[in-house]
Write a structure and sequence with these properties.
Blueprint lengths: L2 H23 L13 H34 L16 H30 L7 E8 L2 E6 L4 E4 L1 E5 L4 E7 L4 E5 L3 E6 L6 E5 L5 E7 L11 E7 L1 H12 L26 H14 L25 H4 L3 H10 L2 H4 L1 E2 L3 E2 L14 E2 L4 E2 L2 H9 L1 H4 L21 H13 L2
Parallel strand pairs: 1-5, 4-10
Antiparallel strand pairs: 1-2, 2-3, 5-8, 6-7, 6-9, 9-10, 11-12, 13-14
The protein binds heme C (HEC) and copper (II) ion.
Length: 408
């Protein structure tokens, strides 16, 4: 080994504990895995700490022995060739046995944790069906016949039991602050995950398995709320879209998806004003759950159209546009290729957690989703754009966005 290599090795050895300490210090950061807010998360944390400590111990002993040997047996002036040996049975048995014992010790808590996290969820759990799509998340609550996207509501203190399926390629469902990730591998071979959130808050979720161009843009939000808030959210989601003009339109047959009929305009009016109790209060969102994705430089939308935007006009445009083939709005359209938009106005983000859900971003999204999110399955809808599936001018797009925003 040359002097340079030796120096490099020492630097690496010195830096590793710094790195480990740095990881531990992350406990104060928003997307940390340390200090989880559920029983499963804490079980996993305990195993992580145990492995970290045991690994650290092995590291210190091995590196210590190495450094000791380096110093003690370094070449000295006038040194003669030391005694040469070949093979040492005792030593070889020892260094085979020690790792075997360490592995056996690690195996016990590891296997126990695997069994714990794989056990059936408690009776009375909240069932959530998760479907991964390139590059967004569909969430269904079969007990309540609710379908939504990219934002999960979970009541504190009740076990949430997830059935994870994918519509296309392999994804991985991960909410670092709540529990470890689990792969989402197949349509017919679901994976399962359960945990019981123990504190209220807003958390970031991610896809943790590379799944194509916009993998890093496949995020979601989780809101853990009180059982009362959850009940209010459920009640709100179970109603039809809040926009009154749609209540009178004929209903497509949505009985298979278990849709509830759209309520009367009077009912929706009350609901619209109730929205604040039914959704996570936007002014209380922790900063790290508010998207800060920079806009693409070549995005251009005439923002003066927003002031003149008319949701009623937007509702009419929506009904005759290609949107209906890909998006469900209960009582309006049956599409299932993209996220359910029945209550899209009540969500805090669009594009799977990529942008804040406001008129500025909504209009740009509808105009050119592929510019806003590379590879997006949603085609551009703006007039004259390459591969566009619509030919809407900026005013029509602003109308569409105003309509969607009204769907609280
Ligand atoms: C070919 C199918 C398709 C068509 C047509 C389409 N969309 Fe989409 N839309 C999608 C897909 C897929 C996504 C998810 C994209 C992503 O996040 O990667 C999406 C996402 C969205 C979102 C963001 C929703 C969220 O919660 O993140 C909005 C809003 C939206 N579409 C509105 C529209 C409107 C309005 C139209 C018609 C002018 C339309 N879409 C036409 C497929 C389509
Ligand atoms: Cu992914």
């Amino acid at each position: 080994m040359t002097g340079f290599h030796r120096a490099r090795r020492t630097v690496y050895a010195a830096l590793t504990p710094v790195f480990v300490l740095g990881l531990a210090a992350c406990a104060g950061f928003p997307d940390t895995i340390f200090g989880a807010h559920s029983e499963i998360g804490r079980t996993e944390d305990r195993l992580t700490y145990l492995l970290l400590i045991l690994g650290g111990l092995v590291f210190v002993l091995v590196e210590g022995a190495l450094i000791w040997a380096l110093i003690k047996f370094r070449s000295k002036p006038n040194a003669t060739t030391p005694k040469q040996t070949h093979g040492n049975t005792t030593l070889e048995i020892t260094w085979t046995l020690i790792p075997a014992v360490i592995l056996a010790v690690i195996a016990v808590p590891s296997v126990r944790t695997i069994f714990e996290t794989q056990a059936a969820a408690a009776a009375g759990s909240l069932q959530v069906d998760v479907i991964g799509h390139q590059w967004w998340w569909e969430f269904r609550y079969p007990q309540y016949k609710i379908t939504t996207a990219n934002e999960l509501y979970l009541p504190v203190g009740r076990t949430a039991s997830f059935t994870l399926r994918t519509d296309d390629v392999i994804h991985s469902f991960w909410i670092p602050q709540l529990a470890g990730k689990r792969d989402v591998v197949h349509k017919e071979r679901p994976n399962y995950l359960w945990f019981t959130p123990d504190s209220a808050g807003a958390w970031n979720g991610f896809c943790a398995e590379y799944c194509g161009t916009s993998h890093s843009n496949m995020r979601f939000r989780v809101f853990t709320v009180s059982p009362e808030q959850f009940a209010a959210w459920v009640k709100h989601q179970q109603t039809g879209p809040a926009f009154p003009a749609t209540a009178a339109t004929p209903q497509p047959d949505t009985s298979k998806k278990g849709a509830t009929p759209a309520p009367s305009p009077a009912a929706t009016a009350t609901l619209a004003s109730d929205t604040n109790t039914a959704t996570y209060p936007r002014d209380q969102l922790p900063t790290w759950t508010v998207p800060a994705t920079p806009l693409p430089a070549d995005e251009h939308f005439d923002e003066s159209t927003i002031a003149k935007a008319d949701p009623a006009r937007g509702a009419q445009i929506f009904k005759t546009a290609a949107c209906i083939g890909c998006h469900t709005i209960q009582g309006v359209s049956p599409g299932i290729i993209g996220p359910n938009l029945t209550h899209v106005g009540s969500r805090t983000t669009i594009g799977a957690g990529l942008y804040p859900n406001d008129m500025k971003h909504l209009t740009m999204w509808i105009k050119d989703a592929r510019l806003m999110k590379p590879g997006s399955i949603m085609p551009p809808m703006g007039k004259g754009l390459p591969e566009a599936m619509g030919a809407f001018d900026d005013q029509q797009i602003a109308d569409l966005a105003a309509y969607l925003s009204s769907l609280k």
